[in-house]
Amino acid sequence: MKVIHLKYPYQLDKVDPSTSYSLAVGFFDGVHRGHQAVIRAAMEKAREINVKSAVMTFDPHPSIVLGKSNEKIFYITPLHQKLEILEELGVDTTFVVQFTSDFAKLSPEEFIQHFIRDLNVKHVTAGFDFSFGAFGKGNMELMKELSRGDFGVTVVEKQVEGGEKISSTRIRESLREGDMETVHHLLGRPYQLQGIVVQGDKRGRTIGFPTANIQPKEGGFIPKNGVYAVKILVQNQLFDGVCNVGYKPTFKNPDEKQLTIEVHILDFHKNIYGEEVKVYWYKRLRDEQKFDGIESLKAQINRDKEQAIEYFSNKSFA
Fold first, then answer.
1. Do β-strands 212-216 and 191-198 pair in parallel, antiparallel, or remain unpaired?
2. Phi, psi of 139 (to 5 degrees)
3. What does pTM read for this prediction?
4. Among 179, 221, 191, 210, which Cα is nearest to 281's?
5. What confidence score (pLDDT) does residue 69 get?
6. How far apart are CA 205 and CA 264, in angstroms?
7. Record's InterPro entries (predicted)?
8. Left (φ > 0), alpha (ψ -120 to 50) or beta: where does 144 sit?
9. CA–centroid distance for 246 within its chain
């Protein structure tokens, strides 16, 4: 997949004028099942009219630049991960438009001129609620009107699950609650967090449960504290595991708040410090808790392992 970074008013000359596109446009945080419906519709249209398939996304999140949200925005899929997923979907080209104050001031007409017509886009696909141009004044009805027949427009209607719209907001709420099975269902894949294995306090090894201490990549969201059934990709191999997210209250002073992500990898005995890993989150097993001693902690970890083993053995995963 070709990735082209664009910034207004500069860097708009990176595009080969001989290449035409069927473009899916949106922020697409999470690349969830609703987003996938938009992207697949654009890819289908690309095959139909014999042009390249493309996705246009934006970075950073508009609310960060516009200061609209009092709440700190976190990404379900940071940009590097979003690009990986788009490539896996089979998209030919992704345009990453830098969302700046100047970009935010573009009128709907200017947006269409610079980011549709000038990119030689022959067809635009977006969700029913996509807006563009200053103050979000442009909607998909206006997109059709302003196209003047120069490019086709497809509007993908609301994608619903359980009577509610599949949305990034809904997925974020489920992540905050640790409801990884709902997240998995809405994304169409398990939630993923990438990170590096770093040195920890090595206490797990001393009690017979060595763990990989994960330092997440910047921008990744850490689900609610607790114990989870996970899978972890290490050196291109996938292993089952049990992950603890929290502050290790059995050993730590509760006033010393240092969040850790530790994965006990089942049937694994290698040293992997410095390795980049991906953790796939499947089910929250329980809250993090404080134990009155090492033996009760070890007994609970054994129960967590058995629960994770049972969970994965009774599930079939795509």
1. antiparallel
2. -125, -175
3. 0.89
4. 191
5. 57
6. 10
7. FAD_synthase, Riboflavin_kinase, Riboflavin_kinase_bac, Riboflavin_kinase_bac/euk, Riboflavin_kinase_dom_sf, Rossmann-like_a/b/a_fold
8. alpha
9. 22
Which CATH number, 3.40.50.300, 3.30.530.20, 3.90.1150.10, 3.40.50.620, labels domain 2-164? 3.40.50.620
Structure-block tokens of residue 53: 């398939």
Which of the four pLDDT bands, split at 50, 70 and 90, describes residue 67? Answer: low
What does the pLDDT look like over 18-39, one tens digit per residue? 899 999 999 999 999 999 999 9
pLDDT at 255: 57
Query: HSE-up of 61 (CA within 13 Å, CB side)?
Result: 18
Q: Output Rg (C-alpha) for the chain, integer angstroms.
A: 22
Instruction: Out of 141-155, 239-253, 284-298, give the one with best mean pLDDT.
Output: 141-155
Lowest mean pLDDT among 49-53, 60-64, 202-206: 202-206
SS3 for the chain, per residue?
CEEEEECCCCCCCCCCCCCCEEEEECCCCCCCHHHHHHHHHHHHHHHHHCCEEEEEEEECCHHHHHCCCCCCCCCCCCHHHHHHHHHHHCCCEEEEEECCHHHHCCCHHHHHHHHHHCCCEEEEEEECCCCECHHHCECHHHHHHHHCCCCEEEEECCCEECCEECCHHHHHHHHHHCCHHHHHHHHCCCEEEEEEEECCCCHHHHCCCCCEEEEECCCCCCCCCEEEEEEEEECCEEEEEEEEEECCCCCCCCCCCCCEEEEEECCCCCCCCCCEEEEEEEEEEECCCCCCCHHHHHHHHHHHHHHHHHHHHCCCCC
Tell me the two tokens of residue 285: 């097993």
At the top level of CATH, which class does the domain 190-313 belong to?
mainly beta
* Mean pLDDT value across residues 88-105: 95
Domain ranges in the chain with CATH number 3.40.50.620: 2-164
